[in-house]
């Protein structure tokens, strides 16, 4: 049985390059899914929930009939870290705690455009 979506903002099940930085580490990954308020991705390192991160996203956006890359920088906090049985990585959910409204809108527009292509 499929349950109705309860999230306020839609998610896109897709890959977007992302980098997370904290005081003593940097992690480069790709999203498994993304919304205007957060991202879900994999990490080779366990990140403690409630860890504050710098988040850097590279979104492909259409501008003047060309695809360009929009760099988005924001702050985030880890809300969930899950081990993956038999794997050497973790699934990590990050909430964008401090993001410019225009950058959140760019993410929302990317999701809307990407979903239209599905």
Describe the structure.
With 118 residues, the chain is mainly β. It has one domain (17-117): predicted glycosyltransferase like domains (Thrombin, subunit H, Beta Barrel). It is built from 1 helix and 6 strands. It has a 6-stranded antiparallel β-barrel. The longest helix is centred in the C-terminal third of the chain and has 17 residues, at 101-117. The two termini are 22 Å apart. The mean pLDDT is 87.
Task: Give me some keywords for this one.
single chain; globular; 14% helix; six-stranded antiparallel barrel; Thrombin, subunit H; mainly beta; 118 residues
Give a topology summary:
Layout: E1 17-22, E2 25-35, E3 38-43, E4 52-63, E5 66-83, E6 90-98, H1 101-117
Antiparallel strand pairs: 1-2, 1-4, 2-3, 3-6, 4-5, 5-6
What's the gist of this structure?
A hairpin with a 2-residue loop joins strand 4 and strand 5. The protein contains 1 helix and 6 strands. Helix content is about 15%, strand content about 55%.
The CATH level-2 architecture is identified as: Beta Barrel
How many structural domains in the coordinates? 1
Query: CATH fold name, please?
Result: Thrombin, subunit H
Helix content: 10-25%
Beta percentage is over 45%
Distance between the termini: 22 Å
* Count of separate DSSP helical elements: 1
Q: What would you report as the Rg, rounded to the nearest angstrom?
A: 14 Å
> Element order, helices and strands?
EEEEEEH
How is the biggest beta sheet arranged? 6 strands, antiparallel, barrel
- Rounded mean pLDDT is 87
Unreliable segments of 5+ consecutive residues: none
The coarse silhouette is globular
Side by side, the strands of the main sheet go 1-2-3-6-5-4
CATH class: Mainly Beta
Fourth-level CATH superfamily: predicted glycosyltransferase like domains
Number of strand elements:
6
State the secondary-structure class.
mainly beta
